[in-house]
Amino acid sequence: MKTCFSAIQPTGIPTLGNYLGALRNWVNLSREYTGIFSIADLHAITVRQDPGDFRRRVRAVYAICMASGLDFKNGAVLFPQSQVAAHTELTWILSCFTMYGELSRMTQFKDKSLKNSDNINSGLFTYPILMASDILLYGAAAVPVGSDQKQHVELTRDIAVRFNGVYGDVFVLPEPFIPDMGARVMNLQDPKRKMEKSDPNPNGYISMLDDREAIIKKCKRAVTDSGGEVRYDEKLKPGISNLMTIYSLCAGKSLEETEREFSGQNYGTFKTAVGEAVNTALAPIRDCANEYIGNPAHLDKLMNEQTRRATELAAPMLKQVKNAMGFVAD
Ligand code: AQP
C-alpha cells in the first residue's frame, strides 16, 4: 500500500479552513493509503509560543485529529513531529541539497516575514526543508494539503530529484493532493485573505471547537457583498462565494445546487443555513475531541504508542539515506 503524509501546525485550534482544505482529505486518503500524520510542533516554533499554551494546544490539536475519523485500522499513525528525531536529522542532510535561491522564492516565507517582522528567524526561512524531510522520510506518494502548501510540496520534489540524481532512487517523488473545492477557505471578515488559525480576530475564522451558537454568530457576521443574490462569483462576490463553498462542502452539495437552493432568498437566511451546515459537519468531531481533551492520561498513552510506531517507520529511510551518502554505518 502506498503512503500519504501530512501535518498541521499547533499554532492555534484548527479552523474550518484546515478541515475543508486538508483534514477531511487526510481522513479520505487514510482509507486508501497508509496515512502518516503529524502535529507539526517543530514548524510552529518559527513563531514564538508560550510554553504552557503550546503544550495544551499540541494536545488539543492531537485530540481533534484523533476525532476526525482517520482510519487507524488501515494503519494510520498520528504523532507530534518533535518526538521523532529522524525529522530533524534528515532536515540537516536535505539542507545541503536545497538552494538558497529556492527558499527565497517561497511565498509563505515572504508572507510570514511581513507578519513577523520583529522575528524573521532562519527557521522561518528553512521551514520547507523540514517539511520536505517530513514527507520524504516516509516515502509518501501523496500529500493532502490546501493550496497554500503546494509550492512547498513542489520544492520537496525538486529536493528529492536532486538527491536521487546523485545517489540513485532513494526517495519517492510526492504529489500534492489538493481538493477541487475548499483548497483555500477565506477569512469571514476579509474574504480576500485566507482563513488562518492564528488570526487575532476570532470572528475571521471558525474553530473546530466552536460550539453551535458561536458558529452561527460568526456566519451571520461574515462580511458579504452589496446586492442580495446568492450567486457564485469569486471576483465580484468574494464573501458570498466563500460562504457558498463552505455550505456546499459541509452539506455535500455542488455550487450549482446551492445556488438553486437559495435562489430568491436573502443573505440572512443563507448565512443561518451555512452556520447550521457547518455545525452539523463539525459537531461529531468537536464532541469526540472534547472527550479526548477531558482524558489527558488516555491521550498521552495514545500519543506515546503512535510515536513509537512513527519512530519505527521513519528509521529505515534515514538509514538508507545515510548509507547511500557514505556515512559510517551504525
Ligand atoms: N484557509 C485554508 N483553506 C484551506 N486549507 C487550509 N490550510 C490552512 N489554511 C487553509 C491547510 O491546512 C493544513 C494545515 O495547515 P498548517 O497548520 O500546516 O499551516 P498553515 O497553512 O499556515 O495554516 P494556518 O491555519 O494558516 O495556520 P497559521 O495561522 O499558523 O499560519 C495545510 O495543508 C494547509 O494547506
Model description:
- The protein has 330 residues and is of the alpha/beta class.
- It is built from 13 helices and 5 strands.
- A 5-stranded parallel β-sheet has the order 3-2-1-4-5, sandwiched between helices.
- α3 (51-67) packs across α12 (267-293) and α7 (122-137) crosses α8 (150-167).
- The two termini are 29 Å apart.
- Bound molecules: adenosine-5'-tetraphosphate.
- Adenosine-5'-tetraphosphate (AQP) binds at residues 7-9, 11-12, 15, 17-18, 20-22, 40, 145-146, 148-149, 183-185, 194-198.
Concise overview:
By secondary structure, the chain is an alpha/beta fold. 56% of the residues lie in helices and 7% in strands. The structure holds adenosine-5'-tetraphosphate.
The helix content is 55-70%
Ions, cofactors and other ligands present here are: adenosine-5'-tetraphosphate
Give unreliable regions as ranges: none
N- and C-termini, Cα separation: 29 Å
Q: Beta-sheet strand percentage?
A: 5-15%
> How many strands, which pairing sense, and closed or not: the largest β-sheet?
5 strands, parallel
Shape: globular
Average residue-wise pLDDT: 97
| SSE series | EHEHHEHHHHEHEHHHHH
The total of beta strands comes to 5
Q: Give the class from helix and strand content and strand pairing.
A: alpha/beta
Oligomer: single chain
